[in-house]
C-alpha cells in the first residue's frame, strides 16, 4: 500500500510540475504535439493498408468470372476490357453484353444499360466534362455506385456497345461477377497506383521519421526546475523506478491528451469521404470504418512510444546535471571540412556530364551525398559569420533585438545550425525523391517534343474497320478535316521499314505532299513536320521509306506483315477537336476505337508518374513542417533559457517588443533563410538530371515547402514571443 501511495504521489508531482515553468510548458506542448502526430503517422500506415484492402475487396467483387473452355459453366454475359483517357489520365472501360434476361449485374449498377448506353463513375463525369465524356461512349444511362468502384474518385465506365459495333468474337463469356480473393484481374484504378510498400515507405520516411524526431526532441527539452527536483530525488536516495514514475506523471498527461485530440481529428473520416489536398485521392469512409478498431491500438502505441522515449532519455540524461539537449557534432570536424563543400557541389553539378553513361548515376549519387555531408559545416561557419554581421548592423542601426540575436548566433551557433541544416536537408531530400519519381523515359520525352511541335493537328485513328464504317466516320468529320490511310511495314534485317500514305489529293496536299505517286526518305528537308513525326513514330526511329499513293482510304486489305490505320489531318493546320473525333471513332469505327496524338500512350504513363510525384510533394510538405517543429522546439527551448538572462533588459526598457525582435531574428529569419538556401541548392543539384529526357522538379514544390516551413516558423516565433514576455513579467531582482 505504501508503494502504491508513493507511486501515486510521484505521478501527481510530475503532473503538477509539468506546467510550472516556460520550458516545462514547451516540454508539455511538445510532447502533446509529438504524441498526436505520432498517432496520426501510425494511423496513416493503417489507413494506407485499409485503403488498399478495400480497393482489392471491391475490385474482386466486380472481376468477371471468365468461363474456361470445357468447364461446363453457362455463359450469362459477354465481357471485354479497354481503356481511354480524359484530362491526361487513363481509365478503364469495360464492355458488357448480357446473354440472358436474369444475368447478374456488375456491382454498382441498378440495371443493365441498353445497347448504345454507358454508365460512368461520378469522378469520370466530372473530370471529362470539358471533353464530352458523357456522350463519348453512347447515351449516359446513370452513374456507378460506390460498391462498384475501387475508390470514390476512380474513373471507370461500363459500356454496352451499339448493335452494329458489337464484336462478339472479341468478347469473353462470363458466368457472373466476383472471383476468389487473390485472383482479381487488376482492371481499374489498381493498374496505375503504386504498390502498398511504396506508399508505406513514403509515409514512414516523410511523416513517421520526422514525427519520431519530434518525440525525441520534445522528450529531451529540459527545465531548471525539473532538473533541480530530479537532483533532489536522487540526493534523497530515490530509485530509478521512482524517478521513472515521476517522468511518466510528467509526460503521461500531454501524451494522452495529444493522442485523444488526434483521435478526434479522425472521427469525421468515419462518416465522410475526405478528399486529400494536392493529390487526386479521396479517403473512403467505408475503408476507415473497417479499420476503426485499430485506432485504439494505434493511440495506445503512440502514447507508449512517447512515454518510453521520455523515460529512456531521462535515464540517459542523468549522467549530467544539465538538461538533455541535442548536440551538434559539427564542431568535432576539422577546420578544412567546410572547404570541401564547393568542390563537392561542383563535382555534383558538372561531374555527371564528364562521366560515361555507366558512371553518370553513381557519380551523381556520390556528389549529392558529399554535398549533404559537408553542408552542416558550411552552415555553421555561415551562421558564425552572419551573427557578427547582424550584431554590427544592429549596433549601427540602433536595433537592440538584432544586436542581441546576432551576438547570440555568433557566440552559440549550434542551435541555429541544427535548425537550418535539418530544414535544408529535408527540402533537398524531397526534391531528389520528386525528381526521380517524375523523371520521364526516352519515349515519353519524344512524345512530349512531338506534341510541342505539331500538337493535335494530326491524330492517329485506330482500329481500321470495314469500308462502311470508315465511310460513316469520314462523313461525320468536320469539313476542314481530311482522312488518310496508313500502311505500315515494320523494318527487318533485310529491308528498312516502310509506310504508305493513301488518300485524296486534298488530303495529301493538307500535308504538303504531291498528289502523284512518289517515295522519299523522312529526313528530307522541306517536309511538313507532321509527316516527319508520323514517320518517326510509325518506323520506330529507323531509316525507312515513305511512299505516297493516291487512292481511297476505305476498303483496303492488309498484306503480309502489314498493318492498317488512319490519320486525321487538319487542312488549315489548326488543332483538331480531340473529343469530337474520339466520339465519332467510337460511334462509327468500333466501340473501343481511339483518336490520339502521336505518342499519346507514352505521355499517359508519364502522367501516372506525375501523380506519384504529387504524393511526394504532399508527404514532403508534411515532413518539412514536422522537421521545423522538431528542430524549432529544441531551438525555442534554448532561446527561452537565454530569455531569462535577457529578462532584465526588457523590464528596464519597459517594452517587450525587444523580445519579439530577438525571437524573430533567432527563429523566423533562420527558417526563411533555410527555405531559400534549400530551394536554391536543391534546384542546382537537380540540373545534371534535368537534361533533355528528364522532367525538372516544378517550382511549385519549392514554393509549397517554403510556405509550409514559413508558417511553422511564424507559429514558433509567436509562441517564443509570448513565452519570453511571460518570463520577463515574472522576473524579479534577487540577491546573489
From TrEMBL:
Keywords: Membrane, Transmembrane, Transmembrane helix
Taxonomic lineage: Bacteria, Bacillati, Actinomycetota, Actinomycetes, Kitasatosporales
Sequence intervals crossing the membrane: 28-52, 199-223, 244-272, 292-313, 333-351, 363-387, 417-436, 614-637, 658-681, 701-721
Full protein name: Membrane protein
Organism from which the protein derives: Streptomyces tuirus
Highest taxon of source: Bacteria
Amino acid at each position: 500500500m505504501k508503494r502504491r501511495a508513493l507511486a501515486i504521489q510521484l505521478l501527481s508531482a510530475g503532473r503538477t510540475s509539468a506546467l510550472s515553468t516556460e520550458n516545462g510548458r514547451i516540454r508539455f506542448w511538445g510532447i502533446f504535439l509529438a504524441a498526436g502526430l505520432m498517432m496520426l503517422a501510425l494511423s496513416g500506415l493503417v489507413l494506407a493498408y485499409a485503403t488498399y484492402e478495400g480497393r482489392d475487396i471491391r475490385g474482386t467483387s466486380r472481376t468477371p468470372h471468365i468461363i474456361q473452355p470445357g468447364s461446363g459453366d453457362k455463359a450469362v454475359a459477354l465481357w471485354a476490357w479497354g481503356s481511354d483517357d480524359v484530362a491526361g489520365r487513363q481509365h478503364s472501360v469495360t464492355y458488357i453484353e448480357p446473354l440472358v434476361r436474369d444475368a447478374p449485374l456488375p456491382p454498382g449498377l441498378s440495371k443493365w444499360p441498353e445497347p448504345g448506353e454507358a454508365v460512368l463513375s461520378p469522378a469520370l463525369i466530372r473530370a471529362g466534362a470539358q471533353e464530352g465524356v458523357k456522350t463519348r461512349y453512347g447515351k449516359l444511362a446513370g452513374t456507378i455506385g460506390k460498391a462498384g468502384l475501387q475508390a470514390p474518385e476512380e474513373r471507370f465506365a461500363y459500356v454496352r456497345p451499339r448493335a452494329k459495333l458489337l464484336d462478339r468474337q472479341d468478347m469473353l463469356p462470363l458466368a457472373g461477377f466476383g472471383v476468389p480473393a487473390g485472383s482479381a484481374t487488376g482492371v481499374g484504378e489498381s493498374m496505375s497506383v503504386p504498390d502498398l510498400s511504396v506508399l508505406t515507405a513514403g509515409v514512414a520516411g516523410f511523416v513517421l521519421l520526422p514525427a519520431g524526431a519530434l518525440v525525441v526532441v520534445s522528450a529531451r527539452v529540459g527545465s531548471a526546475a525539473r532538473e533541480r527536483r530530479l537532483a533532489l530525488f536522487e540526493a534523497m536516495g530515490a530509485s530509478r523506478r521512482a524517478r521513472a514514475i515521476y517522468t511518466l506523471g510528467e509526460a503521461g498527461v500531454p501524451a494522452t491528451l495529444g493522442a485523444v485530440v488526434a483521435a478526434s481529428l479522425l472521427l469525421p473520416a468515419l462518416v465522410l469521404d475526405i478528399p486529400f489536398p494536392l493529390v487526386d485521392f479521396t479517403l473512403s469512409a467505408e475503408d476507415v470504418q473497417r479499420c476503426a478498431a485499430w485506432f485504439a491500438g494505434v493511440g495506445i502505441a503512440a502514447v507508449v512510444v512517447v512515454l518510453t522515449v521520455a523515460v529512456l532519455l531521462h535515464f540517459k540524461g542523468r549522467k549530467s546535471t544539465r538538461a538533455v539537449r541535442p548536440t551538434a557534432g559539427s564542431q568535432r570536424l576539422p577546420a578544412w571540412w567546410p572547404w570541401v563543400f564547393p568542390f563537392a557541389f561542383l563535382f555534383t553539378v558538372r561531374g555527371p556530364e564528364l562521366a560515361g553513361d555507366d558512371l553518370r548515376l553513381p557519380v551523381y549519387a556520390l556528389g549529392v551525398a558529399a554535398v549533404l555531408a559537408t553542408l552542416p559545416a558550411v552552415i555553421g561557419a555561415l551562421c558564425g559569420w552572419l551573427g557578427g554581421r547582424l550584431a554590427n548592423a544592429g549596433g549601427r542601426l540602433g536595433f537592440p533585438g538584432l544586436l542581441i540575436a546576432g551576438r547570440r548566433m555568433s557566440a552559440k551557433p549550434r542551435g541555429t545550425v541544427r535548425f537550418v541544416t535539418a530544414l535544408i536537408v529535408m527540402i533537398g531530400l524531397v526534391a531528389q525523391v520528386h525528381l526521380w519519381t517524375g523523371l520521364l523515359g526516352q519515349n515519353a520525352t519524344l512524345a512530349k517534343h512531338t506534341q510541342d511541335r505539331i500538337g493535335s493537328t494530326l491524330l492517329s485513328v485506330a482500329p481500321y474497320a470495314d469500308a462502311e464504317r470508315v465511310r460513316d466516320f469520314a462523313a461525320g468529320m468536320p469539313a476542314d478535316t481530311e482522312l488518310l490511310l496508313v500502311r505500315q511495314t515494320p523494318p527487318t534485317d533485310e529491308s528498312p521499314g516502310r509506310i504508305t500514305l493513301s488518300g485524296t489529293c486534298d488530303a495529301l496536299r493538307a500535308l504538303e505532299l504531291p498528289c502523284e505517286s512518289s517515295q522519299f526518305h523522312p529526313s528530307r528537308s522541306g517536309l511538313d513536320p507532321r509527316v516527319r513525326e508520323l514517320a518517326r513514330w510509325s518506323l520506330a526511329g529507323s531509316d525507312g521509306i515513305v511512299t505516297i499513293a493516291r487512292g481511297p482510304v476505305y476498303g483496303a486489305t492488309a498484306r503480309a506483315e502489314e498493318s492498317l490505320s488512319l490519320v486525321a489531318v487538319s487542312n488549315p493546320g489548326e488543332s483538331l477537336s480531340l473529343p469530337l473525333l474520339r466520339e465519332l471513332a467510337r460511334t462509327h469505327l468500333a466501340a473501343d476505337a481511339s483518336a490520339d496524338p502521336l505518342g499519346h500512350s507514352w505521355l499517359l504513363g508519364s502522367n501516372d508518374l506525375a501523380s506519384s510525384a504529387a504524393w511526394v510533394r504532399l508527404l514532403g510538405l508534411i515532413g518539412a513542417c514536422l522537421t521545423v517543429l522538431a528542430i524549432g522546439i529544441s531551438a525555442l527551448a534554448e532561446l527561452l533559457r537565454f530569455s531569462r538572462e535577457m529578462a532584465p533588459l526588457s523590464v528596464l526598457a519597459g517594452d517587450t517588443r525587444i523580445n519579439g525582435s530577438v525571437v524573430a531574428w533567432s527563429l523566423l529569419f533562420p527558417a526563411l533563410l533555410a527555405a531559400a538556401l534549400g530551394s536554391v541548392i536543391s534546384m542546382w543539384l537537380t540540373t545534371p538530371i534535368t537534361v533533355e529526357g528528364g522532367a525538372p522538379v516544378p517550382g511549385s514544390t519549392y514554393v509549397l515547402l517554403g510556405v509550409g516551413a514559413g508558417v511553422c516558423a511564424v507559429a514558433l516565433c509567436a509562441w517564443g514571443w509570448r513565452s519570453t514576455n511571460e518570463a520577463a513579467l515574472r522576473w524579479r531582482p534577487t540577491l546573489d
